[in-house]
Design brief:
With 131 residues, the protein is an all-alpha fold. The protein is built from 4 helices and no strands. The chain is elongated, with a radius of gyration of 20 Å. The termini are far apart.
Length: 131
């Protein structure tokens, strides 16, 4: 079969950008961010086991503005990935597969991830007295 100049499989040029496409890409990206956050958690635990000086160094980084930004992003990634995973579980039941339902659940996941992240950080701030 001669395919000529046409592509063998669909490419990004064929697709029009859609909200559900962005959410799918974001779901994968947050999975990668969670893996990076897990490495940071391992560094924190190793520093804890290594002694007070190593732990203080890692802790000082984590409470810096950049460390807090990373922790905030990791928290958002965790919540977004969880909500998107729950969305996929609902889809696995055969529910919510129509385009309007998929778009609505996407908005719920996006907004919910931001709201829950802010609530988690507000609760942590209130419980700890500072962050």
């Amino acid at each position: 079969m001669n395919t000529g100049d046409r592509p063998l499989s669909p490419h990004l040029q064929v697709y029009r950008f859609q909200w559900t496409m962005a959410l799918s890409i974001l779901h994968r990206a947050t999975g990668v961010a969670l893996a990076a956050g897990a490495l940071m958690l391992v560094c924190w635990l190793v520093a804890l086991a290594d002694g007070p000086e190593a732990f203080a160094a890692v802790q000082n980084f984590l409470v810096s503005w950049f460390g807090r930004l990373l922790l905030f992003g990791w928290t958002w990634s965790l919540i977004y990935h969880l909500l998107a995973g729950l969305r996929h579980l609902v889809w696995d039941t055969g529910t919510g597969l129509s385009l309007p339902a998929a778009q609505a659940s996407g908005y719920i996941v996006a907004v919910g991830s931001v709201v829950f992240t802010i609530l988690v950080w507000a609760a942590a701030y209130q419980a700890l007295g500072r962050l």
